Amino acid sequence: MADTATATAKAKRHRSPAYPGINLQQAIKRACEFYDKENRNPASFKAAANHWNYSEKSSGALVTCAALKSFGLLDELESPHGRTFKVSSLGLKIVADKRPDSPERDAAIREAALRPKLHAEIWRRYNGRLPSDAELQYQLENEWHFNLNSIDPFIRELRETIAFAKLTESDKIGETDEGEAETPEVKIGDYVQWLSQGAEQFRELKRVNGLSDDGAYAFLDGETTGVPVGELEVGEAPAMPPPATPLPPPSPRWTRAQLQPPVYAGGSVMKNEVFSLDGGGEVVITWPSPLSAAVIEDIKDWLKIVERKISRSVEKPEEAAQ
Questions:
Q1: Is the pTM of this model over 0.85?
Q2: Is residue 174 in some structural domain?
Q3: Are 200 and 300 in the same domain?
Q4: Burial letters for 181-214: b for 16+ Cβ neighbours within 10 Å, e otherwise?
Q5: Most buried of 200, 206, 275, 312 (most Cβ within 10 A)?
């Protein structure tokens, strides 16, 4: 009973809106580490995790990768070999600009700070002047429906990012589309398609075999890393294959159709004679016609040999009685 209640509570756990799991300063540091190893080249998720000293399946690698995408520092590419990333054009303006003083890099950092949708919504709501933590906590719980355990970590990340980017009230952002698609309800056992940058990543739907503790990532059959739940689309489970059609019974070794005499070159025709036995079965003799007199004599001699062989297989009286 306790296990059932725990499972039910976990299934109903409220999920907060998506936000970066690390602040912008940490994200840029990770982007620099990626760029130092790969430059402008794409790299697999496994390689990226190694650059950040994470294992491929660690939650830290998933959180870091999602944060860099959210800030616009990494682009995810279509690849038949699994999740693949490269530094984005915005990221290059930051990590590849090594000048001590660079207005262009500073502007790119400010842009990255407001790339996460939730950052942009809050910045626009308060016109660049954030209220107190208490007010933010109230609004995040009631307006954005945050999980209570996520409110303080998000406020800390938001304020650290704003301070690092040196955002001021004069930093404005353009209007964005109304709302964001709700995070789909994905359950273990669902079959899903992964939509990344509007493109389907799988040829066929894949089954969800697990979810991360916070419900933000799904683990799929055939995939070694988690996939963001917000980028999944639930589809219909594949139909069960129809039962196998039974094979027809084997045909007898000999059939009347098979014993029809074929015609060979030179006018020779194969003829046959079928003798049905009382106890079941048949004796079949096939020969080409016409035959020479010498060949006919040879066949007669051969039939005598066959007669002797058949005679030796005659049942003895005592065997028949048994």
A1: no
A2: no
A3: no
A4: eebeebeeebbbbbebeeeebbeebbebeebeeb
A5: 206
